[in-house]
Write a structure and sequence with these properties.
Helix 1 packs antiparallel against helix 2. The protein is built from five helices and four strands. A two-stranded antiparallel ribbon has the order 1-2. The protein has a two-stranded antiparallel sheet with strand order 3-4. A hairpin with a 4-residue loop joins strand 1 and strand 2. It has 169 residues and is mainly alpha-helical.
Length: 169
């Protein structure tokens, strides 16, 4: 590739390559979440772009060099980034499943929905929904215990016994 000058055609020089490298380094630092390295890299992009302009490169050529540098780093990091996303997604799904099983266990133990909710850091309605889903919905889950007739499911009654969520058989 050559850079057109009104007088001479010449190959792309080190200045434009420095812009590519600096732009790639900035994207890499931003991706890693290192604000200090990203700041240093941003300064390097500015310095490289200034040098490229002083060498006679147009802003368009400099911008294209930045795009090429970022694209190269993006391609280098693509597989690792997608692998990390896949791995963390699997861990999240497993953690959610474990959390729901712990909620179901606490419900089967007879703990109140509010008590479970407080421990889980969610509302008792969320606990009720999770329990219903795990026990197959309202048709298979029922609250048994010493509960007033018009009370909300899962809320402790005035009596000493707590309602217990059980699986219908």
């Amino acid at each position: 590739m050559s850079k057109s000058n009104s007088r001479v055609d010449r190959p792309l020089g080190g200045e434009i390559g420095a812009v590519e490298e600096a732009a790639g380094a900035r994207l890499r630092a931003e991706t890693e979440g290192d604000p200090n390295a990203a700041g240093v890299a941003a300064d390097a992009v500015l310095t490289a772009a200034t040098s490229a302009m002083a060498a006679g490169y147009s802003l368009s050529e400099i911008a294209h060099a930045e795009v090429r540098g970022k694209a190269r780093v993006r391609e280098e990091l693509r597989d690792d980034a997608l692998h990390r996303v896949e791995h963390s997604g699997r861990q999240m799904r497993e953690a959610i499943a474990d959390h729901h099983q712990a909620i179901a266990r606490a419900a089967r133990l007879g703990l109140s929905m509010r008590e479970i909710a407080m421990a889980a850091g969610v509302t008792h309605g969320t606990i009720r929904a999770i329990s219903n889903r795990l026990f197959g919905g309202d048709s298979r889950a029922e609250l048994v215990g010493n509960e007033p007739p018009n009370s909300s499911p899962g809320i402790e009654s005035e009596s000493s016994e707590r309602p217990v969520l059980t699986e219908a058989r």
